[in-house]
Amino acid sequence: DLHAVLHWAAFCLLAAGTPLMPETPRLCPPSCRCDAATLEVNCSGGRLFAVPSGLPFESTLLNLTRNTIKTLATRQFHNLTQLLHLDLSDNLLTLVEVEAFLGLRSLLTLRLPRNHLKVISVGVFAGLKSLQLLDISSNKILVLLDFTFRDLASLEFFTADGNDFVFVSRQAFAGLTSLKKLAIDGRNLTAVPTEALAQLTDLRSLHLQHLGLAVLPNYSFHPLVHLKELIISHFSRLETLSGNSLFGLNLTSLTIQHCNLSEVPYIPLQPLVYLVYLDLSFNPITCIRGNLLGDLLRLQEFRLVGGSLMCIESGAFKGLAYLRVLNVSQNFLTTLESGSFHSVDTLKTLGLGDNPLACDCRLLWVAQRQLHVDFDGRPPICATSVRLEGWNFLDFAEDELSNLLTCRRPRILNLKSPQVRVDQGHTVEFYCSAEGDPQPSVSWLNPQLRRISTTGRVRALSNGSLEVRYAQPLDSGTYICVASNAAGNDSLAVSLLVQALPPSSKNLFRPKGWSASPSASPGENQKLPFDLKTLLIATTIGFFSFFSSVTVCFIFMFFWSKGKGQIKHTATIAYVPRSAVSNNNTRTGNYKETGRFTMKLI
Ligand SMILES: *[C@@H]1O[C@H](CO)[C@@H](O)[C@H](O)[C@H]1NC(C)=O
Ligand SMILES: *[C@@H]1O[C@H](CO)[C@@H](O)[C@H](O)[C@H]1NC(C)=O
Ligand SMILES: *[C@@H]1O[C@H](CO)[C@@H](O)[C@H](O)[C@H]1NC(C)=O
Ligand SMILES: *[C@@H]1O[C@H](CO)[C@@H](O)[C@H](O)[C@H]1NC(C)=O
Ligand SMILES: *[C@@H]1O[C@H](CO)[C@@H](O)[C@H](O)[C@H]1NC(C)=O
Ligand SMILES: *[C@@H]1O[C@H](CO)[C@@H](O)[C@H](O)[C@H]1NC(C)=O
Ligand SMILES: *[C@@H]1O[C@H](CO)[C@@H](O)[C@H](O)[C@H]1NC(C)=O
Ligand SMILES: *[C@@H]1O[C@H](CO)[C@@H](O)[C@H](O)[C@H]1NC(C)=O
Ligand SMILES: *[C@@H]1O[C@H](CO)[C@@H](O)[C@H](O)[C@H]1NC(C)=O
Ligand SMILES: *[C@@H]1O[C@H](CO)[C@@H](O)[C@H](O)[C@H]1NC(C)=O
């Protein structure tokens, strides 16, 4: 009907008239492509030496990437009040004048990466009150001065990596009250900019790279109470985290990768009880020790890829009842026992590829759980078992598993239990060698059934032997060698009887029959039987006990004389060495030497 036609005609007239109206010019600079629908202007790769003039006022996005723009003048973008996104990546910017972005009051993102900026003057970012994302990565900025970013109260994401910062001033980040995520590169910094970071009261995620530190100091991130994610990467010299270095943080995610840590930082990790994700990949860590990560009770994901891991001890993940993901691929592990876990039932993803795995009963649990565990396309592969070399865990059929992945119980190879009888002072070695699959570990128990350590006068040697040096009568008794592996254990008892020295020996320092090894006959041994260390210790102990007795004596005399009211000025003390005294009744020797001491009382 007529009404509709009139409406239609009016609409057509309006549409035709629009481009002619002076208030909304639809201009587009020659090197750019302006999209009227999205209001985006794409000048990328337009061979521009400067920001073109005559840009449409209502643009929301201006893409100036891959040009050769060198400078941005003051109020360069003044009229683009609707602009939301400005991208100046990959230009040759060396100078950005103060207030260059003034007027961009709606701007949300500003990208300046891969330019040649060396300085950012205070005031450059004035007027960007809505800005949420700022990227100045891969420039050559040397210093961050006080209050550079003070106008960016809405900024949430700030990327500044790939610069040459030599100095980050204490107030550099002042005013960034909304900042949630910061990435910064410390290649040329000598310390964590702790004080500057302290301004970022709302920070949630921090990524620090390339700092040249060997030790992460205490309280490095102390006031960042809201920080949830910390990524430390490529600190190639970092070997130690001080005990309190992570103090004050309440992280849920921690990554320390491509550093030089040789130990899991157990102590610094202890307070992080809310940690869910831990990544220590690409550190030369050799072992995850037992029962030291139990404080991380909410941990769900642990990654240590590309390390130097040779062992994951029993109980390593004890207490971690929610561990779902473990990735220890690209290490030197020969096995991973189910005893390392709190419970293998929670495990959903297991990265064990690229390890020289020995396929035996210790890995049976992995094969049995293969249907419940995701190997992310890299199932474990047997490496060191001759029979199964190259087999992949998915090749095993359910019913043949327990026949293929087997272990052999240890067997101690010694033919008989020795009974050794020696004179006091001899050194005795008991051998114990065992076979089994996997190779059993050998340990020794003393007559009190306590485990013998690898140090001390009586010690377990690394080759499985037990060594008793300078045997004493109280060393007598039954020692037990225990060989154990995943399949069980075997034991062997040996007995030692040490005979006390005959009372006839005269010279305390060169007693007859005292020799360094049982094989050497006493007569042949012309060497001084004590080594220098023993002698030194004995002498020192003697001295200490002598002096303490003398001191006690003097104190006593001092008080006594005080009490009497008359003062003796000198005192002479004669002493007889204790060993000589205690042996006096049995020894008739010439060891009768006594000492004499004169002291002055004050
Ligand atoms: C911008 O223009 C360049 C050059 O014509 C083109 O390669 C690129 O895809 C465009 N980008 C967008 C987001 O349209
Ligand atoms: C600008 O254009 C380049 C090239 O097409 C593109 O890679 C980049 O993402 C664009 N920037 C924005 C903010 O869209
Ligand atoms: C901004 O707009 C004013 C007029 O509104 C004009 O005179 C001026 O040249 C424009 N500036 C730029 C940089 O386009
Ligand atoms: C920053 O460190 C890199 C390598 O670590 C070096 O090449 C560069 O010269 C250093 N820059 C400054 C300004 O010291
Ligand atoms: C890493 O630590 C080892 C010793 O623990 C040292 O020999 C090596 O030089 C360190 N590497 C770096 C890059 O500092
Ligand atoms: C760091 O703190 C720990 C624990 O309080 C302390 O033992 C250590 O000496 C401190 N290290 C330094 C360098 O202050
Ligand atoms: C630590 O963070 C967790 C969640 O990430 C939160 O529930 C807990 O209250 C925080 N603790 C403190 C002391 O801030
Ligand atoms: C373990 O991490 C490596 C390296 O990131 C990855 O390639 C592999 O897929 C991961 N494995 C699993 C099971 O997630
Ligand atoms: C075990 O090592 C010690 C020294 O470490 C050596 O004296 C002894 O002969 C070794 N025993 C065997 C059985 O190889
Ligand atoms: C040796 O095995 C028995 C059971 O076979 C076990 O009770 C014992 O604790 C094991 N001893 C050691 C030292 O592993």
Automatic annotation (TrEMBL):
One GO cellular component term noted in the UniProt record for this chain: membrane
Membrane disposition: Single-pass type I membrane protein
Annotated TM spans: 535-560
Entries under InterPro entries matching the protein: Ig-like_dom (IPR007110), Ig-like_dom_sf (IPR036179), Ig-like_fold (IPR013783), Ig_I-set (IPR013098), Ig_sub (IPR003599), Ig_sub2 (IPR003598), Leu-rich_rpt (IPR001611), Leu-rich_rpt_typical-subtyp (IPR003591)
Domain Ig-like residue range list: 410-495
Protein's name in the database: Leucine rich repeat and Ig domain containing 4a
Keyword annotations from UniProtKB, A to Z: Disulfide bond, Glycoprotein, Immunoglobulin domain, Leucine-rich repeat, Membrane, Repeat, Signal, Transmembrane, Transmembrane helix
Regions annotated as coiled coil: none
Pfam families to which the protein is assigned, alphabetical: I-set (PF07679), LRR_8 (PF13855)
PANTHER family according to UniProt: KEKKON 5, ISOFORM A (PTHR45842:SF12), SYNAPTIC ADHESION-LIKE MOLECULE SALM (PTHR45842)
Source species: Kryptolebias marmoratus (Mangrove killifish)
Main location: membrane
Localization per Swiss-Prot or TrEMBL: Membrane
Signal peptide: 1-17
